[in-house]
Amino acid sequence: QLQLVESGGALVQPGGSLRLSCATSGFTLDDYAITWFRQAPGKDREGVLCIAVGGSTITYATSVEGRLTGVRDNAKKAAYLQMSSLSSEDTAVYYCAARRGSCARGESWYSAWGQGTQVTVSS
């Protein structure tokens, strides 16, 4: 059974940094792309970025380019979302999702999801 558990969400001040973790179990992470999604209050969930099997990343949300980066550690069965220069617009519940094979942008491509972790950017 594929399981993903996010952690690391917190209240952070504007301009601050945060690292989210996505712990995985029940599958071989090496074979799966991991995408980070987020859902802000009152908005649809959106794809943020995908960490491909080989470790490269595809950024889907242009507003995060240069500020949010994705990293995977297959040995630790985990993926991470490193966030910097945070603003109130980054306030959202962040989810990681797994897909066997290559990255894909839409939610419907992902069958395994974590429960989400809350990131709040506020002074």
Briefly characterize the structure.
The protein has about 120 residues and is mainly β. It has strands spanning about 5, 10, 20-25, 30-40, 45-50, 55-60, 70-75, 80-85, 90-100, 110-115, 115-120.
Which features would summarize this protein structure in a list?
single chain, 123 residues, mainly beta, 7-stranded mixed β-sheet, 4-stranded antiparallel β-sheet, 11 strands
Q: Give the ordered list of helices and strands.
A: EEEEEEEEEEE
H/I helix tally: 0
How much helix is in the residues?
under 10%
The SS-based structural class is mainly beta
Poorly predicted ranges: none
What's the quaternary structure here? single chain
Major sheet: size, sense and barrel closure? 7 strands, mixed
Mean pLDDT: 96
Amount of beta strand: over 45%
Task: Supply Rg.
Answer: 13 Å
Q: Span between N and C termini?
A: 40 Å
Structural write-up:
With 123 residues, the chain is an all-beta fold. The protein is built from no helices and 11 strands. It has strands spanning 3-7, 11-12, 18-25, 32-39, 46-51, 57-59, 68-73, 78-83, 92-100, 112-113, 117-121. The protein is globular.
